[in-house]
Specification:
90 residues, two-stranded antiparallel ribbon, 30% strand, 5 strands, three-stranded antiparallel β-sheet, alpha+beta
């Protein structure tokens, strides 16, 4: 399943045009992304929580040369599945 597949499902369920369905899917994803950019989290009941986690700066090793490399601190997206989703898949 990809983004286009989701848009097709939305169009089948709600009717309308494919363009409108794609706009709805884009709106959902863009809303999640913009909330996460602000440092917030998005909770979808029964599905999970999208959030942002900070990673501290650290020293790593280049596997090819063995040389020590400094890795800068950064923020990464995180998803925690809800219990309902875990139970459905298991």
């Amino acid at each position: 399943m990809n983004k286009q597949g989701l848009a097709d499902l939305v169009q089948e369920k709600l009717g309308g045009t494919k363009v409108q369905a794609e706009e709805v899917v884009d709106l959902v994803f863009n809303s999640i992304i913009s909330t996460m950019k602000k440092g917030g989290e998005v909770s979808v009941a029964g599905f999970g929580i999208f959030s942002v986690k900070g990673r501290a700066a650290r020293m790593a090793r280049n596997p090819k040369t063995g040389e020590q490399v400094s890795v800068a601190a950064k923020k990464v997206p995180k998803f925690r599945p809800a219990k309902g989703l875990k139970d459905t898949i298991a």
